[in-house]
Every structure is written in structure tokens, then in C-alpha cells.
Amino acid sequence: MSRMSPSRRTRATAPLRLAALAAFLALAGCGVLPKNEPIALYRPEPRLLVDPAWPKADWQLQIARPGADAVADSARILVRPRAGELQVYKGAAWTQPAPDIVHDTMMRAFIDSGRFAGVARRGEGVSPRYELLLDLRRFESDYAGGSTPTVRIAVGARLVHNIDNRIVASRVFEADVAADGTAVAHINRAFEQGLGEVSTQMIGWVLAEGGRSADRSRY
User: Fold this and answer.
1) pLDDT at residue number 126
2) Based on the number of CB atoms within 10 Å of its own CB, is 67 exposed (0-12), middle (13-18) or buried (19 or more)?
3) What pLDDT is stored for residue 203 in this prediction?
4) DSSP H or E stretch at residue 209
5) Per DSSP, what are the bridge partners of residue 42?
């Protein structure tokens, strides 16, 4: 009988570990796990930095809820204590799943920027010229061998022209913010800063790419 090499065993068990973590998070989110301790709830409240150079758009935008894998699509706050290991903070959680936090953040930021003729979610009865499709790739704190973590956020974005379903532009937006401590409150503040950076970058990008696409369509 042939034996599986250690490297093959590692590759074979990695998906099982990921599936187990996803199942744990799902059970926790459904309230199946015993509740032996109070849960502190956190919600990042980022600040939008409006760039006065941003143009005004005469078109409406629709923003879809970000897609995410089963691990990220959870209200548990993810932490990576060392490379290759993913855990959750004990006794702490977001007020809603991470994709919804990102979605609400982007909705508020794009509306508050005052640069769009309209901003809406899917199903709100508007006829937007563009839709912003989002993919939440990272939303975690990462110790990376250090004594304090760095919050890492990565959101993929595709700007789609709704009339012909054409992808106008695509980009990945990232923010790495060093936390000023190890408490979850410190982590939350770092998430606030990171979400503010990502939303500010994304608004400028959507205005620029949407404007270029609109100019081309006139000719």
C-alpha cells in the first residue's frame, strides 16, 4: 500500500480545515453553540474624506452586496495569529456579517460624497447607468509575526455598464492599517480607518472610469 507524503496530506486536509472553520462560524452565527459568555458587538464607523477635485456625475449608480466565501461571510471577527492559521476573536463579533458592513459603508460613502445623481441598492426600483459589483477578499487582522496586528482589507470591484452588461473597469482596492493595540476596540478603530481609505479610493475610481465610459459613448 502506498503512503501519502506529508506535503500531500497537508494539501488534502487544508480544505477540510477550511470547511470546519466555515461550519463553526455558521453554527455560531445561528446561535447553535452554547452561549457561556457575553458577546461584545462592534461596528466600524469610518469617516469619508471628500476630494474637492472629484467631478459630479449626472448618472445613477447601483451597488451590489459584496460576494464572499463562507468564512468571510460571517459576523465573527477574523484574526490570523500566524501564517496559515485563521481564528476568531473570543467574546466579540460584528453587528452584521462582514459583507454587509462593507456594503453599508460603501452605500453611505457614495451617497454622502454628493457626487452622484443617485445611489441605490439592488431592488430599489431605480434605473442606474452603472452597477458596482464587489468581491470581499480579505477582512481580517493579521499578526504576521508581530506583537500587534495589522488590519487587512481587500475588495475587488467591477464597474458594469447596465445597458449592455459591459465591464467598464475592474480593480482591487486594499488597505493595511496597523492597530495601536491588541484589544478588539483597537482592531475596530483600524477597520474604521481601512474602510475609510478603501471607500475614498473607490469613489474617485468610479467617478473617473464612469466618466470616461460616458464620454466614449457620446461619440
Assistant:
1) 83
2) middle
3) 98
4) helix 184-217
5) 94
pLDDT (mean) for 136-149:
96
Q: Other C-beta atoms within 10 Å of 216: how many?
A: 9
The runs of H, that is alpha helices, within 31-129 are 98-112
pTM of the model: 0.81
> What residues pair up with 136 in beta bridges, in sequence order?
155
> What one-letter code names the amino acid at 91?
G
Angle at 33 between CA 30 and CA 39, to 5 degrees: 80
Lowest mean pLDDT among 8-22, 32-46, 66-80: 8-22
Q: What mean pLDDT, rounded, does the chain reach? A: 87
Which phi and psi (to 5°) does residue 29 adopt? -70, -30
CATH of 39-217, one of 3.30.559.10, 3.90.870.10, 1.10.3720.10, 3.40.50.10610: 3.40.50.10610
The answer to whether the beta carbons of residues 22 and 70 sit under 8 Å apart is yes
SS3 101: helix
Rounded CA-CA distance 196/102 in Å is 10
Cβ atoms of residues 64 and 124 within 8 Å:
no
Q: How far apart are CA 141 and CA 80, in angstroms?
A: 6
Q: Which of 46, 50, 59, 43 is nearest to 184 (CA)?
A: 43
Per-domain residue ranges for the chain?
A: 39-217
